[in-house]
Each structure stands twice: as structure tokens, then as C-alpha cells.
Amino acid sequence: MNTCLDTGLENFLIEVVTDKAVHLAHHRRIREIVVPKEYKTRTGALFKSRALQYCLEDNVNVLNDNDWIVHLDEETLLTENSVRGIINFVLDGKHPFGQGLITYANENVVNWLTTLADSFRVSDDMGKLRLQFKLFHKPLFSWKGSYVVTQVGAERQVSFDNGIDGSVAEDCFFAMRAFAQGFTFNFIEGEMYEKSPFTLLDFLQQRKRWLQGILLVVHSKMIPLRHKLLLGISVYSWVTMPLSTSNILFAGLYPIPCPNIVDFVCAFIAAVNIYMYVFGVIKSFSLYRFGLVKFLACVLGAVCTIPVNVVIENVAVIWGLVGKKHKFYVVQKDVRALESVVV
């Protein structure tokens, strides 16, 4: 709230959506919405989709169709730059949906391994996400579930009521449906802050849920093939990750001659992946805050985490393929809760 006020924003309302009452202090700018246990959507949406759809119901929603919603996860922190970017996006008015960059190392780091591993996601946002929205204005490869800016009328038209298949990766399913309905997207300047998972198990569970949820989206008959084709190619390149990773071992044990172009492509892909980790660290970590020595150590550390991250991603793929698909794992990112457990 203070961040919004500091940037000069006056006409705004903060809505906190929860399944259990948190009893927030009464304030004219804060509205707590508790989703009733008996509430059911038309298609049986679950988890976050169910909660978001409840907010759009006529007897709950207090917003006009030309108002704007900024969707944030509970741990996402606004910055003044992101608020300015959102204002510019809204005033531009050309696109009903938008999203910006999230970084993971601007606050106190809880787990260095997962934070350095998430530097890849920062590069992914700056590359894939920004390109598809800036150049094509379409979610060709989907988008994230936080730092989502939507116009109310468009959000209600697309809807989060997408059944159980659209409830695991609800953000991805929503983006694909909006894409199929002809809505346009844009990239929002200004970054927000989040924390990476606190434990390797949470990190693994998070990746597993993403994989399972996106697979459900790709296999859904509600979305035309032409709109999910690139997303399908992307997720199946992820699914086949154990095969490509095993090549590192088998290429040395059972070498076979390959055309130079194949070797070049493999080397290029590996180099780009390493570069994405390095670039993500440069974008996330402040040289002024950490100093040159620690900053360079973070860059080196990100490269050193690649083997660990590859192992986790492979386990997530295998677990995701054989495990239960319609399950929503909530990653713990409450530092106070973590500290109370430790004590």
C-alpha cells in the first residue's frame, strides 16, 4: 500500500483472497475475501482457479469492466518502478493483459542454491516472455502466475472456470484461452521481487507441478492446437530432458560420429543455457549491494548450481510423469512461519 501511495497512486483497492479468514485490520483500501467452503464453480475448478473465479462472481465483484487488476502471489513485492510500469501500461490501453519481470535476489536470500538456480527464470522472462509480448503481443509460450495485469471485463470473459485440468497451472490455461479468444498482451517495464523456494524439496515440487499443469493444458481439448503448438513443443522438450541429459554420459561411453552441424547446435544450446544463468545473476544481484568479490562469486555459484539444477529438473520430470496430475502443492515462502518451525 505504501509503495502505491509513494508513487502517487490514489484510486486503488487491495483485495486479499483466501480460503481461511486472516482477519486483516479494517482499512478503506483493503478488502478481505474469504472463499466459502461450499462454493463450487460450474466446471468444478479447484485450488487457485476456484478462488480467483469466486472473486469474479457478480455478487462478489465490486469492480467495473474497465477497471484493472494486478494479480500478485502472497510473497510478491511491488516496487515503485513496477507501479509506474503498470500505470504506463494501463494508460496505453492497447492491450487488456500484461506482465513484467520478477527477480529473486533483491531481498534477504533464504536458500542460495535455489535462488541461484532461479536466475535462469529471470533470463527467461527477459528473453522469451518479453519477446513474445513486445513483438507478437501473444502468449506463445504462456506466462507466469504473478505480476499479471488484466482488465476486469477481459478477465471475466476468459474466466478461471476451466475444470480440474485448468486448475493445476491456472495461469497457463488462462493465457492460452485468452490467446484463443483473440486477446492481446504486452510486456510491462519495471520489476517485482519474489523469493525462491526455501528448500530443495519445495523447489522440486514446484517444478513438478509446473510440468504436470502445463501438460494438462497442452492435452486439453478446450484449447485449439494452433494456439498451443509452441507451448507443446516447449513442454515436450522439457519432458525429454532425461534423454538429452543421459547423452552426456552415453556420448563418452558409446561415442558415435555426428555431423559437425549437430555438434555445433548442441554446443550452442549448452552455451545459451549457461549464459542465461549468468545473465540472470547479473540482472538479479546488485553489484553495489554485494560488492565486486561477492558479485563474481554469485556468478560463479550460478554456474556451479547447473548440475544440481539439472538433476532436480530430471527428477521433477520423471516424478511428474508418473505422479498424480491433479494436485496443487503450495510452496512455503513465509519466513516467519519457517522461523517458528525451527524454534
UniProtKB/TrEMBL annotation:
Record's GO cellular component terms: cytoplasm
Regions crossing the membrane: 229-254, 260-280, 292-312
Keyword annotations of the record: Glycosyltransferase, Membrane, Transferase, Transmembrane, Transmembrane helix
GO molecular function: beta-1,4-mannosyltransferase activity
InterPro entries (alphabetical): B_mannosylTrfase_Bre-3/Egh, Glyco_trans_2-like, Nucleotide-diphossugar_trans
Keyword Glycosyltransferase annotated: yes
Domain Glycosyltransferase 2-like: 68-282
Pfam families (alphabetical): Glyco_trans_2_3
Family: Belongs to the glycosyltransferase 2 family.
Name listed for the protein in its UniProt record: Glycosyl transferase
